[in-house]
Amino acid sequence: MSIQEIRTAICNLDTREKAVLMAELFAMNAEPNEAELSAALDRGFADVQAGRVRPIEDVKTMIPQWTSKS
After folding, report:
1. CB neighbours of 21 closer than 8 A, spacing ≥ 6?
2. Global confidence as pTM
3. How many angstroms separate the CA atoms of 70 and 59, rounded?
4. What whole-number distance in Å separates Cα of residue 70 and Cα of residue 68?
5. Is pLDDT of 1 > 90?
6. Residue 26, domain extent
7. Do the beta carbons of residue 19 and residue 49 sit within 8 Å?
8. What is the C-alpha separation between 17 and 11, in angstroms, rounded?
9. Is 69 helix (H, G, I), strand (E, B) or coil?
10. Are 45 and 14 in contact (CB under 8 A)?
11. How many Å apart are CA 14 and CA 59, to the nearest integer?
12. Residue 19 pLDDT more than 90?
């Protein structure tokens, strides 16, 4: 499977599936506590259901502020 095929497949995932995929990819590179990861995902899903989310366009503009050393 090519990177482009993977990107296309990811674009077809729903929000929850994308979140689970992100968590699983992160877990591949770290050794998180499974209970903590599950609790964090539950909090994230609850935030989505409660409408405590921001459009990705807004988040993208905020990233430089989060990563700057100011």
Report:
1. 10, 13
2. 0.43
3. 19
4. 6
5. no
6. 3-67
7. no
8. 10
9. coil
10. no
11. 18
12. no
Put residue 51 in one of left, alpha, beta given phi > 0 → left and psi -120 to 50 → alpha.
Answer: left
**Mean pLDDT confidence for 17-26:** 87
Burial of 26 (0-12, 13-18, 19+ CB in 10 A): exposed
Residues 34, 42: Cα–Cα separation, whole Å:
12
| Residue indicated by tokens 């497949």 | 9
Span 25-68, pLDDT tens digits: 887 777 768 898 899 989 999 999 999 999 889 988 988 888 87
**Count of domains observed in the chain:** 1
Q: Residue 7 region, left (φ>0) first, then alpha (ψ -120 to 50), else beta?
A: alpha
User: Is the pLDDT reported for residue 70 higher than 70?
Assistant: no
Length of the chain counted residue by residue: 70
Coil, strand or helix at 21? helix
